[in-house]
Amino acid sequence: MSEISKEYDFKQVEERWAGSWDESVYYFDWNSSAPQYIIDTPPPYPTGNFHIGNALNWCYIDFVARYKRMRGYNVMFPQGWDCHGLPTEVKVEEIHGITKNEVPREEFRRLCEELTAQNIAKMRVTMRRLGFSNDWSNEYVTMMPEYYSKTQRSFVQMFDKGMIYREDHPVNWCPRCGTAIAFAEVEYDSRTTTLNYLRFGSDLGDLEIATSRPELLAACVAVAVHPEDEKNRKYIGTEVRVPVFDYPVPVIADEVVDPAFGTGVVMICTFGDKQDVRWWVEHDLPLRQAIDREGKMTEVAGRFARMKISECKDAIIEEMRSEGTIYREEPLDQNVGLCWRCKTAIEILSERQWFVKINPGEIIETSSEIEWVPEHMEIRLKNWTGTMDWDWCISRQRIFATPIPVWYCKSCGEPLVAEEEWLPLDPNLEMPPISCPACGSEEFEPETDVLDTWMDSSISVLNVTGWLSDHKPRYPAQLRPQGHDIIRTWAFYTILRAKALVGVRPWDSILVNGMVLGEDGHKMSKSLNNFIAPEEVVAKYGADAFRQWAAVGGSPGSDVMFRWKDVVSGGRFLQKLWSMYRFAAPHAKRSEGTAPNQVDRWLLFELSQMIEAVTGSMDRFAFDEAFRAIRSFAWEEFADNYIELVKARLYGPDGPEKRAAQATIYEALETLTSLLAPFTPFIAEEIRMSLAGESVHTASWPEPPKVLPQPEGSLIKDVAAAVRRYKSDRGMALNAPLAGIEVYSELDLETADLAGSTSSTVAVKRGRPEIETRAVEVKPQMKAIGPVFKEKSGEIIRRLREMDPKEVARMAEAGKVLVDLGGEVAELAPGAVEIESETLSAGRAVDMIALPEATVLIRTGT
Ligand SMILES: [Zn+2]
Ligand SMILES: [Zn+2]
Description:
Bound molecules: zinc ion
Number of strands: 33
Structural class: alpha+beta
Strand content: 15-25%
Strand order of the largest sheet: 27-26-33-32-31-28
């Protein structure tokens, strides 16, 4: 065996393995009949940076994938890339100094694809460096025709089933992004605004209304009062006139109106908020759209047309103030819906859009067939399901996304949805191969809207399980790992789509991971300056150390704080493992039929217990538990206890005793590398390869050795540890010989390893020792004596030292110590002296160590 370096060089080892591993051993076998374990991994957005939150999630996935593979499963750990979306469009505009409308649609799309491909390449490097066992034969890229043809076919199939429709309907709209967005993309935040009290003209005298959005006066279609409102109900059924714009609107009764808010009268606009939409539908009100797609006022706003919303608001308030229409203004705290991406306040516009029907009951029922880990995360899905006021709006007014495969007949206006066989296609580039089924015209307008990116990623599970492929489909997948921040989107939409398209639950289990917090406890972000990139950690301490942080940092579901100290201690463990291996390697020998002694059997029993515990933890995704169990076994039981105990045998003459220790070391090392393989794949491989000449990543998960509990070996280990502590407390070298050790217990202990590890003769005896104690020295306690006896203290202490320690001990026991000062007797409390005594056994001085199962006597004299 070649020389093993003293320091563990993580960089050299990790880079060497990352560059030489045969990744095909991680490929899923479509023809295998072994039980499958397909993981519906999250396809990250290709920003170019594989951030630490991704890395945490991927560590969890890799722990599971490697473990399941070792357990004999046919594992798929695919890698997808969720490419489409606004951030890439914005980045491309930035890089090339253009806006998307300045270049042809196709050209803009090509630039987006180019940037995305570069970013994916960067992120793949980081993933390989982190040691993830991805199945690259099952990589998918949502912007590629192979994938988006499936997205388009899913659209067509759901349209044919009546689950997708197109309609004029209010939608959430981001005026800055210039696109419709889904409820899941609306964030709420509280803002302080002004509640304006104004007067609507009426024959019954002015009606007072409070509103925070006077810029929507032009969109007012009715006002509502509570039917029991004493003051205002007389207006119900009449008409009032909208100030500034001076047109009549009806006053209607509705029980949802809160008579205690403002003046108790509500202005219904199309649309101020979701409640307006509900009223608009229930009371069948007309539509007055005062805001356009760019967030500017429309012609409906008369002389305010084309002003921005905020300009219009200021102008209208100014006008009403000067006319006295506003008679009061007060601050109001309000919850405002914002675009999740750019934080612009969303508007509700009525638009012709494509929608996917939502069936909340079916989603909740399907969700209950799935095992949620941790269980409480399912509540988030259930709470979200049913809060949406309308269906999932899936059309977006962007470019870099999957095209909606639809045209509209120029002569009759009927939509023509593509046949599945025509796909993939972009209706902006191709015309349908048939004429209009309704009127026979051959002239079409393409649908320029594109699909919400969740339409791509919500079929990831179908894609990886072989839907619409040459393989026999294998849904449901076994596991969906994902963050809790996308339960209402990715998890929700996936359940909806799997059920709609193939009629089954998408996965058996969903594993929800938390977010990564910075060391200051806040969410990691560049602006907070608490941002850490995985590459930085890997450069300093290595991937194996980083992965240990992920393993011990927290349990799945809870937010995990990034802590350098976890990484540092991960690095320390790698060095400890390496030193242990460096010592043990020359002694580790595989051999059959050896006769393990009590100490060997104790270690094997501990090993079997540990394997069982770790296996149970892995099955529950309790990675922190699993890793800690392995680490404490390696560090404490194996290195600190077992190796210390058997050193003498290892360096002793050849024979069955030595071979038993060598075989035990081999088994322990081999097992440790197997158990560590999912967590620290690099060092596990390095050790296993040089130990056994085989890759640990194609090895099986270890079976626990069949060994009964070993109280004798366990006690020998405790005694040896106690003697080590004894020596170290006294500043003795650990190999310093002692005059003799006697161990009293109820067990028949073998002495060889104890004698070897303590460098002393060891006698083992049954029962308890006969011992006596004898006082040998008096130690006066100045702190107790000084304050009481002042200037006499010196004399007292001198006298005490001359007295017979046994006599002083007897007096202290009785409650007071009398000191003769020559004519005067000082009376000391027992605390004024400390008695040093020695323990005697059979008349010889010994130190005694009392253990729960044994008494150890160490001879101190000769
Ligand atoms: Zn936006
Ligand atoms: Zn037609």
